[in-house]
Write a structure and sequence with these properties.
7 strands; alpha/beta; 196 residues
Amino acid sequence: MTFLGGLYDELLLASTSAARRALMDGLGLPYRAVAPGVDETVAEGTPVLHAVAQLAERKARAVASRHPRCLVIGADQLVSLDGRALGKPPDAATARAQLAAMAGRTHEILTGVCVLGPGYLVTEVDVARLHVRALSPGELDGYVALGEWQGCAGSYRVEGRGQALFSRIDGDRTSIQGLPMQRVVRLMREAGVQFF
């Protein structure tokens, strides 16, 4: 594959997330999505910024250990409300509680990305700020009933009906969807990938 400049055997996305795959598909480059299969817990008290960077790198390293001659992109995402991480809710009640806590307030979504290949390793974190509308109990119940919260840090999917939750979004929309593409492209270029 000429776009890899002979430096790597293959481009791998260390994620099976449909949102991340859709963003990678937009580049029009051949790649393969591989489940990282890692433990996603971090030490208690780890700052959200460090936690999301650790998780992104952990995913990239897990896939790279099985495919050492490939260029691997790992990513992870956490929502931070008052400096406390909100992960993926295990059930609808937790999702509703997370959304209720964010209603009428601003929170951050941090997306860690790690690009790793032979002789190359960079991990960065993108931060976006999201302003959630004041939401009535009925609106909270209605959104949770859609099920978009499943598998999503912070209990919403900004590329779905969740768009209607926000009065303002400051930051890279692709990052909020799970993969900060401007950073990804820059890091891939630094690693030797040719886009044109």
